[in-house]
Amino acid sequence: MSYQSTGSFPTSSLPEQVAFHRRELSVILSLYGRMVAAGEWRDYGISTLRDLAVFSVFRRTAENPLYRIEKRPKLRNRQGQYAVVAMDGQILKRGNDLAVVLRVLERKLIRAVE
């Protein structure tokens, strides 16, 4: 039995929306919980878009996000698919290992606790 493309199926192997997988969310939510316990963060939001997924963290609900944790699979072979972006748009850390990228925010937790 052979398979032929009929044109009705997308030719791209990328999904229609980029999303965080369960393991990725576990790593992010672990950091989020520690930051909430330290009183640094109060709320979060998750956006799944065509080219990227974003986990935004807020100090207060009605503010702009303090940080955005972005996943861009198209950058996997370049700068890395994960990035931490500050409120002003500055990229604080980028790479392919989510736990390593999030360490830039864990340093802020260490300062908050001291």
Model description:
The chain is built from 2 helices and 5 strands. The chain is globular, with a radius of gyration of 17 Å. Helices cover 28% and strands 24% of the residues. The chain has 114 residues and is of the alpha+beta class. The N and C termini lie far apart (66 Å). The model is unreliable at 1-5 (pLDDT under 50). It comes from Tritonibacter horizontis. This is DUF2794 domain-containing protein.
Keywords:
disordered N terminus; 5 strands; 114 residues; 5-stranded antiparallel beta sheet; 28% helix; globular; alpha+beta
What does this entry show, briefly?
The protein has 114 residues and is of the alpha+beta class. The chain has helices spanning 22-37, 98-113; strands at residues 43-48, 53-58, 67-71, 82-86, 91-95. Strands 1-2-3-4-5 form a five-stranded antiparallel β-sheet.
